[in-house]
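Any chance you could type out a protein's amino acid sequence plus the matching backbone structure tokens because I've never seen that pairing?

——
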Amino acid sequence: MEHRSQAESALGGAAYGMLFVLGIVMAVVGGFTHPVWQMDGVPVAAVVWVLALFGVGLGAGRLMRARLGAVATAIGWLLVTMPFTLELGAGDLVIARGAPGYIYLYGGLLALVGAYLLSPSSSRGSWLLRGYSPTNPM
């Protein structure tokens, strides 16, 4: 069984927490900017956001060398994006019906699932903690 020091556990927890916050930030910015740029009826901004979500999710999973990196980013994105689809009493909503909204919402979900599936399933140690040696005192 692998023994982890308190510093290593805290650093790993902070890294996953920052990935969660990154997912939240991407959801807020993407939620409001996905319908902005369209070219000949193609919602280019929504497609770019889907590709960005895939890249960030896959990068998080690969850099942390565990699927939990992709999951942390996805949970942050989902916690903000899902309420954005709800219609308020005045009829306002952030992610509206239409091609940009559907591409951003469903494409983002597929992108995050794909990033999860392509991430490593076992944790061989994070890139963040690679240089740490438990025999050397800090």
Q: What stands out?
A: Residues 6-33 form the longest helix (28 residues). The chain is about 65% helix and 0% strand. Residues 8 and 133 are 10 Å apart (CA to CA). The helical segments are 6-33, 44-64, 67-84, 99-118.
